[in-house]
Write a structure and sequence with these properties.
By secondary structure, the protein is an alpha/beta fold. The chain has a domain at 178-311: 2-Layer Sandwich (Nucleotidyltransferase, domain 5), CATH 3.30.420.40. Helices cover 37% and strands 29% of the residues. The chain contains ten helices and 13 strands. The protein has a five-stranded mixed sheet with strand order 3-2-1-4-8. The longest helix has 27 residues, at 250-276. The protein starts with 10 loop residues before the first strand and ends with a helix. The relative contact order is 0.17.
Amino acid sequence: MKLFPQEENYFGLDIGSSSIKLAQLRALHGRPSLVTYGDIEVPSDMVVSDSDIDQQRVADLIKQLADDAKVTSKNVVASLNAAQSYTAIITVPKLSHDELAQSIKFQADKVIPMAIDQVKLDWAVVGENPASDELDILLVAAPNNVANKYLNIVQKAGLELMALEINSIAQSRSLVSPADAQSCILIADLGVLATDIAIINAQIPRLVRSAAVGYKAMLRVATQNLGIDPGQADQFLKKFGMDQTKLEGQVYKTLKPIVDHLVEELNKSITFFQEKNENKHIEKIILTGGTVALPGLPLYIANSTGLTVEIGNPWQNISYPAELQSNLAGLSLNYATAIGLAMRGAK
């Protein structure tokens, strides 16, 4: 099983902690065109569970979603978040294919914090330096137990897992516009359990990491600090968010320490990247993930980082029927990974 997909007929499957999304595309007049899409909610903690019963339940939900969306392929490329994987950029001399594979495996053992025999390892050439006769290699590794879990779930759903792909690689396809194709961009995927951070240069992930800041932590703090039940806290977060003018700023004050921690993680990633790449500068931040919808959050991040912040639009690089435009606009924050996975197959 590969961690980078090959050219096959398949659909993208984003197995998130609170919902599962899928998207299928096909090439039409040289441009990826939307065939179908869909999502289904997943009970809390079911996806992260290692029990056979929960894995079967997730598989049943995937099968139901695929049937409802009427996908036309049994082949799947599924997503991996940053917390479940390891990525690194290494530089190696130009060698024959067999020698290159051995050299990469040797270097991977130095940078991946697990024994090589305990991970699924894949790599791709992402750059070349003619002057030094060297290659830049993107390494991706997933622990065997994680890869096998996804394989089991997909097979239980009656589907075929063609590949696992890191979220940030998929999102670099769907969220980066042609105008920004050569730019340095930070993509932050604000999820339920964590925020995946990726710095993309020329559409290649150069830094990928995960920060333990997500909607669940915000909800927990709001429940405790405001003395309300989780259902009401959820309503307060979605209605007032980081708006200081609402509810006497109580929700804002509750969320601020967590959001400040997120901003700190973003700035830390930017500083680390630019120390390693002195001639590169982050031009903008693209936000995706359902947590981004909290009122005032994107503006707060923009003011705190001093960078331009945009809301990700995963539909910008594909074609779709005009009558779907309003529906798709409302789903933009949730489909960046699924569309990005599917875009790889439509090329």
